[in-house]
Amino acid sequence: MARTAIKPAVPDEVIRVLSVLPSASMVVAPDATVLRASARALALGLVNRNAVTIPDIAHLIERVVEDGHAREQEMRVRRPPLGRELLELRVRVAPLGTGAILVLIDDLAEERRVDVVRRDFVANVSHELKTPVGALSLLAEAVLAASDDPDQVRHFAERMQSEAGRLSHLIQDVIDLSRLQGDDPLTHAEVVDVDDLIARALEEVRTLAARHEIELVTGEASGAAVYGDHGQLLTALRNLLSNAIAYSANHTRVAVGARSTGTIVEVSVKDQGIGIPVNDLDRIFERFYRVDQARSRITGGTGLGLAIVKHVCQNHGGECTVWSEPGVGSTFTLRLPAYYATTPFDRDSTELAVNLLSIPGEARA
Ligand code: ADP
Predict the structure, then answer these.
(1) How far away, in angstroms, is 284 Cα from ligand 1 center?
(2) Which listed CATH number (3.40.50.2000, 1.10.287.130, 1.20.1250.20, 3.20.20.150) goes with 111-182?
(3) Does domain 186-365 have CATH number 3.30.565.10?
(4) How far is Cα 152 from Cα 36, in angstroms, rounded to an integer?
(5) What is the pTM of this model?
(6) Interval 18-32: pLDDT, tens
(7) Which of 38, 125, 199, 305 is the most exposed place for a label (fewest CB within 10 A)?
């Protein structure tokens, strides 16, 4: 909370420069009140309620305010608000001359993380692509061998069609996942209305649900918002909903609801489906892990849906939790840092910098 009445001005040139820098950045007053922050700083959870959430960064700012000398420090800190992920940050703090202080933050571990993930992903993907391609080639041989028998030809052609569908689904998921792992999704961050997100995701799975005669149920409007990439969040929710439908018997219900617990927004997808054995629960978020290979083949699953969900949550500083009981059903919950604003964002002055003075909420390091 602000302790000084007069806030130092943040020159427009500074905002313009910050908006093109890849680093997360903030401009703070001498009492460490955040005056402006880049989308990336917000998305990494470094700022909440116009306060710096990481004590080590706040301390560094204090020292710079004391003697007016610029400083640089590397630090390993837990990513707020959940603290599940470790961030390796290089923080540079310098006085701006207008009374305000500039803070630039780079995530040093990010590149290394992306590299490791990418390497074993390529190996897994090549393996997975071989299955439908191999099947297509065998089916093509079968068609040739049965060219005199129209019924057989039709049968094999239909199977070819379904394998081709599987292949294209797999390729789409691979593209989605490599996008998530590749470029920096938080550069597209914006305020996302959670109720609207749910409505859109439901719209996208309505036909699938109707085909399985599954009733889609929604809870009351939550009024909650999160700060993130709309497209990614939609993909994550759609994946949870399509799984809930795919792994449930006909004539059951799938319910989706959201609530805000202050710092965290929870979006839950609950089904009355086949459930997941306890021994598999830890592994279902791994790429290409399926509880039941045969069933996954029938549903056309790629084994990537939940890996995508996990990545989206991680990118947003959140997590996905699961409760499940075989024969009873499953509940998947997206837990994301909440965003509250009493007034809408002013995105006019610059694309990336946002004025934080109107954001209440809780700070947590
Ligand atoms: P798939 O494309 O095979 O569905 P996912 O990554 O989406 O891959 O899910 C991994 C595995 O987790 C699935 O193969 C399935 O066994 C299990 N699973 C996911 N969601 C559910 C659910 N709602 N109910 C039961 N099992 C599920």
Answers:
(1) 7
(2) 1.10.287.130
(3) yes
(4) 68
(5) 0.74
(6) 777 778 889 999 998
(7) 199
